[in-house]
């Protein structure tokens, strides 16, 4: 019984180890297949680029006559000939304008022009002036004074300013006090003494009736 339990535990250990090893092998297989897939995709992209290049080449070769016509008539291009290529170093040296001065064809030294300083240049000019005969300076013509310009004065009749008509002042707006005074005068004219007397008598009679 004890041996059976030990064998059972050992079986479980072997089973777990086999499962882990299988999972590891599967992960390796997946990584390998993924790398293979990336390589195939790169090959597909390269094949598409080659196909595009070949299609462009075929289209250009199909239109070669048109391209030659454009090159000769419009752009004036010409194909390179044998005279456009150099055969050896000697022709290259002659092409650059260098004369062979040894087995290595070393170029000629570069000559640099020297610029004299200001003191030396002034001394050289003084020496040249001393050697050359003195020459009298040519007379300089003085400019003449300009002639006076007369300005015609305008006539008084033409320069007389035009008279402007005075603008009429707008009528002032009537004040409210003046308006009220006028209304009171109008009421006084409408209500004369007779009318006021009749109104007083009617008021007195109505007061008597109310007292009775």
UniProtKB/TrEMBL annotation:
Biased composition regions of type Basic and acidic residues, renumbered to the chain: 171-181
Coiled-coil features, chain-numbered ranges: 30-57
Stretch list, region Disordered: 158-181
Domain of life: Bacteria
Segments of skewed composition (Low complexity): 159-170
Alphabetically ordered keywords of this record: Coiled coil
Protein name: Colicin transporter
Organism: Sphingobium fluviale
């Amino acid at each position: 019984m004890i041996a059976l339990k030990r064998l059972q535990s050992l079986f479980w250990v072997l089973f777990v180890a086999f499962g882990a090893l299988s999972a590891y092998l599967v992960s390796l297989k997946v990584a390998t297949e993924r790398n293979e897939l990336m390589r195939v995709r790169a090959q597909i992209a390269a094949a598409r680029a080659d196909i595009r290049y070949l299609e462009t080449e075929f289209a250009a070769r199909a239109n070669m006559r048109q391209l030659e016509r454009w090159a000769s008539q419009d752009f004036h291009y010409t194909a390179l000939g044998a005279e456009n290529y150099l055969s050896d170093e000697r022709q290259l040296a002659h092409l650059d304008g260098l004369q062979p001065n040894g087995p290595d064809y070393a170029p000629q030294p570069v000559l640099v022009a020297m610029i004299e300083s200001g003191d030396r240049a002034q001394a050289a000019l003084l020496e040249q002036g001393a050697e050359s005969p003195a020459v009298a300076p040519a007379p300089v013509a003085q400019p003449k004074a300009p002639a006076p310009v007369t300005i015609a004065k305008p006539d008084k009749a033409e320069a007389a300013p035009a008279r402007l008509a005075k603008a009429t002042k707008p009528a002032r707006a009537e004040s409210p006090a003046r308006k009220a005074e006028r209304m009171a005068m109008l009421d006084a004219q409408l209500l004369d003494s007779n009318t006021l007397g009749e109104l007083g008598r009617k008021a007195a009679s109505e007061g008597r009736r109310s007292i009775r």
